[in-house]
Amino acid sequence: MPSGLRIYGSAQLLRSAAFRLAMLQALLFALIALMLFLVSWLAARHYIENQLRQAITDETGEMASLPASRRPASVQRALHQVPKNPFDYSLFSAHRDLIAGDLLNEPAAGWTTLEQREPRKDTDAVRRILVLGTVLEDGSMLVVGRDLASVDDLDTLFKSAFTWAGLAAVLLALAGGMVTAGGYLRRVEAIAVAAARIAAGDLGTRVPVTGRSDEFDRLAFALNSMLERIQSLVEGLRQVSNDIAHDLRTPLTHMRQRLEAATSEAKSMEDYGKACERALADADRVLETFAALLRIAKIESRQRRAGFTYVGLSRLLESLVDDYRPVLENEHRVLNAEIAPDAHVHGDALLLTQMFVNVLENALHHTPRGTPVALKLSMADHGYRVVIEDAGPGIPVEDRTRVLKRFVRLEASRTSPGSGLGLALVAAIADLHGIALTLDDAKPGLRVQLDFIEGRNE
């Protein structure tokens, strides 16, 4: 594994942002569970207490409807029916003396909760009783109550159930958070490992893609696109360095040989002058090559996009046709032009002119005398299309991508002057403007197709 990287352990996992998010979710879930418990508990308790109050009220109504002379006996009979009869009773006189019943404390009129020891069993347990005190027509007070044990049992059941359920839910949330955090950290680790390998010089490394189309896959696609661009630029730089060393060595060697020959063999000023002229020609060739390289580099840096304006493409091509038609006619060639009117594109007029000039110069220099050249501007579904064709030898299919790179010259062109940068400059300008460049077979000859796609260069 690259230096500085290690697999996440438990300590790193607990410190991760994903685990903190899982903890926050677990806490939020616990709060929601607590609120659910409170609402459910209060609703259930309220329902049961209402049922108890209704039962006590009904029982009080039945007892109160009895004649006053029969009430003490009815209270005693009801108490002897326990446990079939779940109610507690007491009857107090008008002076609040206990006449009958098992509720010893004299409650106030209305609803009250009493606590008293269990009189029916040998136990010290304290009972909580919900009672209703009712003052009757003769001044006596009838008290009817019912044990709150069912309500207390419900409280215990709810507390126990929600405690265990809440604890289980929190533990499951934490476990899920650990699993989620581990998955996130593995994806982050994969990206970090790929970045470390790239930093170590392995430009072919790519961030793995799972195919789930999630946010990590989108990030991986973006990073891989960036890495492909970086690799292309680095390999291009390496290739350019090699090509510069190879292609400039010849004119520099010739320059040195001629100067050396002039130094040792020249016998007059005229000989010196001729040697210097040839050396200057070689120097101009080297400077032209460097100037073309600088233009390509500047274009590829996209610095020229700031100066883009709407360019009259039809007028620009008509002007080029007027300039090149006499040149071609001098070599017994024909330039056939078919230009759609009022075509406008967004771009740099000087660079577009340079692009078309290079294509025409390529057709002029690499085809035999008398070979016709055709230029056509037409509307297309995507925008505008410019096609320049010649009837020369063309370019083999396997070389059509390669000739768009710097310093690439086919064997058939080695005897003609040039640096192999013409079509590379065309490709750079086309890429800057978002133009789709295609080299194809004109049957015979080369077909250069330039598609101006609307919206790609704005």
UniProtKB/TrEMBL annotation:
Span of domain Histidine kinase: 243-456
The organism's place on the tree of life at top rank: Bacteria
EC number(s) recorded for this UniProt protein: 2.7.13.3
Subcellular localization(s) per the UniProt record: Membrane
Keywords, ordered alphabetically: Kinase, Membrane, Phosphoprotein, Transferase, Transmembrane, Transmembrane helix, Two-component regulatory system
Classification via InterPro entries: HAMP_dom, HATPase_C_sf, HATPase_dom, His_kinase_dom, HisK_dim/P_dom, HisK_dim/P_sf, TCS_sensor_his_kinase
Transmembrane segments: 21-44, 161-185
A GO term for molecular function: kinase activity
Domain HAMP: 182-235
Catalytic activity: ATP + protein L-histidine = ADP + protein N-phospho-L-histidine
Listed name of the protein: histidine kinase
Originating organism: Dyella humi
Lineage: Bacteria, Pseudomonadati, Pseudomonadota, Gammaproteobacteria, Lysobacterales
